[in-house]
Amino acid sequence: MRKARTQAFRQAPWRNFRQSTGNTLLGLVALLVLAGMYLAVNGRLADAGRELLTLEGRRADLLRETTILASQLADLTSPERLLERASSMGFHPAHAKDTEYVVIEGYTPPAAFRAPAPLGSPVQPSGGLSPAYTETLAEWVLRTVEMVRGG
Amino acid sequence: MESQGFRRGRVTSLMIAMAVVAGGLVVQLIRVQFGPYAPVFDARARAGNGRTERVTPARGLIYDRDGVLLATNGTMYYVEIELRQLNDTSRREIASVLSKLLVLPMDDLVAQLTYDWIANGQLRIRLTRQDSRVGRLPIRLDPTVASVLRDFLADPLAPDLSGLDLVPTSSRHYPNGTLAGHVLGIVNQEGEGFFGVEGYYDDWLAGKSITVERTFLPPDAKLEPDPPAGVNLVLTIDADIQELAEIALGEAIESSKAEAGQVLIMDPRNGEILAMAAYPSLDPNHYEPWLVKAEEDEAGITPGVAAQYEPGSTFKVLTMAAALSSGSVRPDDVFVDTGVIEVGGVPIRNWDFGAWGPQTMIGCMQYSLNVCLAYVASQKLTAAPFYSYLTEFGVGQLTGIDLAGEVAGQLRTPRHPEWTESDLGTNAFGQGVSVTPIQLITAASAVANGGAMVQPHVVREVASPQGTYRPKPVVLGRPITPEAARTLTQMLALSLEGETRRATIVGYQLAGKTGTAQIPGEKGYDPKWTIASFLGWGPVEDPRFIVLVRLDKPETSPWGSVVAAPVFQEVVERLVVLLELPPNQAVPMAAAGG
Question: Given CB atoms, is A62 within the 8 Å cutoff of chain B?
């Protein structure tokens, strides 16, 4: 069998060229597949990073917008503004002589105001990206081997 | 054969050339990695990847006791110039646009834009403006103006503003303007708090800045931690009561033509400050003029805790409280007023220079007799116990209120080298002793609160990322007995009804004392101006508020009973409604005033 193969290659030397070309192409294709995978992973990584940066910027904008809106709301509901609006509607501040007190059974005064927790807290952990986006191929192989070994 | 040799030679030459190029590249790579300039190349590469940034958390918010937002954060924009991007056209256009939008002198802007900053090593500058009172200040734009400039930057047909950059910065905003401005204090452009609550709680409100490595490369992006946020504060101040106090004070200033004034309202049971109004009013949004003023008179920014004065007759409350508590006098004890008494060789006379004849202690308080109170302090109580009581009342000491800038006032005791016996006589009716409004109202709160003096405070709740904390009332001391406190309150309720109807309310029994104090100067007491005041509390059966009114240099009348007492009445008429205090049906309407 081996003899027949050797004779076939000797009779048609182009078979040698075709074999070496095939092997080279196989290696090249394997390299291209790896490069493609690497490119795809990096592309997804860059995309995720870009999205993260955009979301961080958006979050900062929204926080800024929230404070501006809260500030505008406070402007509109300030005691001075409310007093002006009430006066323009014909009301005036009640004095002791204008007030009649009525005892209501079971009345409980409203609960005391509790301040909200400060914005941006509690502190978030750093490094929010999955290791899938950050580890190298070698690190992935090592991690996988360790996982297999560890059962 | 020749042609084959020639071809081989050509290939060899090409390979040698390529090897030389490759070798050069390798040498250059080694030089960049390990050569003497390796750190420089490394730094340049890193600079392109990102930058180190100092992240400051948003400053904590401040609410009133019912959740009205008193201090919040806004965004302003600094105008910065990237000098390497400037060109002749953009220099002109930037100066022109800013000058028109912000009404700033064109010359000043052109001078900043044409100065050779790069020669001084600066590649980026922040534009400034001249303020006549303070000096040069950075130009800050509100979001509306900033958005106009951004539109210009995005529009190719708009003026060329190349090099202009708008840098957002957090700015403190006080939605209610002047409301409680003196209590809140101020925050400068660097985010540092001064005076009032902003000054006292600056570290807590500011939070902690952190340093983060910002990357410009999306693959390296990661979530950065938020810096530890500043706490949110809930004050004891009630915005409605504060508004009421400020309106009443403003009207009183206008009608009496006084130079300045304060109204303090406190809950004597727990030391909570419900309102602390002051005139001239301070808008923390526009604090720059106050900083200039503070260089001469810092007390003007927080007068409630820093503007010390000789209290005059309102101080008689403390003298009589000490005498009653020590058992030196009783309400019905009679003093025969001859119109003058000598203490330490100095004659002391009444406010009207008159002799009021036989008077009980109630009468002494009702007619505010200096001679009687000097007699009580010098002959019934004597110096050591008198000053011991004043020290117990906290006179001449800080109350410890949580507002920055408090001062201690001045009290000379017999141990002081400059103390003379005559001081005992004059101190008894509030002369020769200096107090701050917060000190006086705190001392008097002991009388209103059955003898217990509670530390005044303005913060009711602290909300931090770790949780919520509510400070508990701190009893500073019990300078007088509960019996003495009750007796004096009843005496002052009776004397108030006799002294001035301008401070009484139908259906509510109130206790109080007027004060008209002379103002000391370098050459003795000012013959023209006074400080008119009123100190009162109620309802007598269960005091829920204590009010101090102070008017400096009123023009229409010098007397506290004429200009300050009506302010107390005006405030209390509304205060009982806001505090939901029903009238006491047992109080005879006629006797209660009206």
Answer: no
* CB-based contact A94 B74, cutoff 8 Å: no
Determine contact, residues B261/B551, Cβ cutoff 8 Å. Answer: yes
**pTM for this prediction:** 0.81
- For residues A94, A99, A102, A103, the Cα torsion angle rounded to the nearest 10 degrees is 70
**Distance between CA atoms of B463 and B469, rounded to whole angstroms?**
6
Q: What's the CA gap between A55 and A53, in Å, rounded?
A: 5
Q: Number of Cβ pairs closer than 8 Å across A and B?
A: 163
Three-state SS across A74-129? Answer: HHHCCHHHHHHHHHHCCCCCCCHHHCCCCCCCCCCCCCCCCCCCCCCCCCCCCCCC
pLDDT bracket for residue B5 (50, 70, 90):
confident
Task: Provide the percentage of residues in chain B whose pLDDT is more than 90.
Answer: 67
Q: Do residues B48 and B212 touch, judged by C-beta distance below 8 A?
A: no
* pLDDT value of residue A133: 65
**Residue A121 above 50 pLDDT?**
no
pLDDT of residue A120: 61
Rounded to 5°, the CA angle B315-B183-B319 comes to 10
Q: What angle do CA B77, B83, B84 make, to 5 degrees?
A: 130
Closest CA to B435 of B181, B243, B262, B555: B262
- For residue B89, the distance in angstroms to the closest alpha carbon of chain A comes to 32
Residue with tokens 């001084």: B120
B356: its two tokens? 């009021």
Cis peptide bond N-terminal to B539, omega within 30: yes
Q: Partners of B124 in the beta sheet?
A: B82
Quick one: residue B542, left, alpha or beta (phi over 0 = left, psi -120 to 50 = alpha)? beta
Tokens of B480: 């007088």
- Contact in structure between B480 and B489 (CB atoms under 8 Å): no
d(CA B529, CA B557): 10
Report the SS3 class of residue B519: strand
What is the rounded CA–CA span in Å between residue B329 and residue B323? 6
Distance between CA A96 and CA B540 in Å, rounded?
16
The candidate with the shortest Cα–Cα distance to B241, out of B205, B287, B284, B272, is B272
Which ipTM value was assigned to this complex?
Answer: 0.71
Instruction: Determine whether the interchain pair B225/A63 forms a contact, defined as Cβ–Cβ distance below 8 Å.
Output: no
Q: Mark B115-127 as b/e (b = at least 16 C-beta within 10 Å).
A: eebeeeeeeebeb
Q: Which of B74, B468, B505 sits opposite A68 (nearest CB)?
A: B74
- DSSP sequence for B222-268: -PPPPPPPPPEEEES--HHHHHHHHHHHHHHHHHHT-SEEEEEEEET
Angular region, B529: left φ>0, alpha ψ -120 to 50, beta rest = beta
- Does the CB of A120 have a partner CB in chain B at under 8 Å? yes
Q: Do A52 and B223 touch (CB under 8 A)?
A: yes
| Cβ contacts of A126 on chain B, cutoff 8 Å | 222-225
CA–CA dist B419, B35 (Å, integer): 80
> Which has the closest alpha carbon to A116: B75, B128, B462?
B462
Amino acid at A126: S
Q: Does B173 touch chain A (CB under 8 A)?
A: yes
For the stretch B31-76, pLDDT in tens is 888 888 888 777 777 766 776 777 888 899 999 999 999 999 888 8
Residue B511 CA to residue B514 CA, distance in Å, equals 11
